[in-house]
Amino acid sequence: MISLNFEKLFDAAKQVRELAHVPYSKFKVGAAILTSNNKIIVGCNVENAAYPQTQCAEASAVGNMISQGETSITEAVIIGSGSLLCSPCGGCRQRLREFASLQTPIHMCNIDGHQKTLTLEELLPDSFGPENL
Ligand code: THU
Predict the structure, then answer these.
(1) Measured between alpha carbons, how far is 11 from 32 in angstroms, rounded to an integer?
(2) pLDDT, tens digit, for every residue of 43-95?
(3) Is 58 a catalytic residue?
(4) Fewest CB atoms within 10 Å of the CB: 76, 105, 112, 129?
């Protein structure tokens, strides 16, 4: 289900996606996180000539969120490139897991709009999280 916040998150992710540093893949990704304090925090992917040092958009957004004193994700929008579904990579599912509940909706989009929404639990079943420690 698309939320009331979806349009705002979508616009924020679309805007930051344009800033992605992607000279190698040309695959721009933008992510927008809604926090429990109703803040929207964004991030884009940042590639590196040493390819494995690339940072995903979701990782950038999570880092920005922590830098702004926020720690709780209630919703997220991710916009990839092209027409295929851009779902968060495995590492980013785990990054979101640290700060989101299992019911948190993750909206996957392309630049034309919404494609699919899954909860974090659907994206990362039987996950390992903070309460496991
Ligand atoms: N990418 C993301 O930013 N997030 C994901 O969840 C999937 C992949 C980026 C990394 C790289 O810059 C480009 O997409 C191609 O893999």
Answers:
(1) 9
(2) 999 999 999 999 999 999 999 999 999 999 999 999 999 999 999 999 999 99
(3) yes
(4) 112
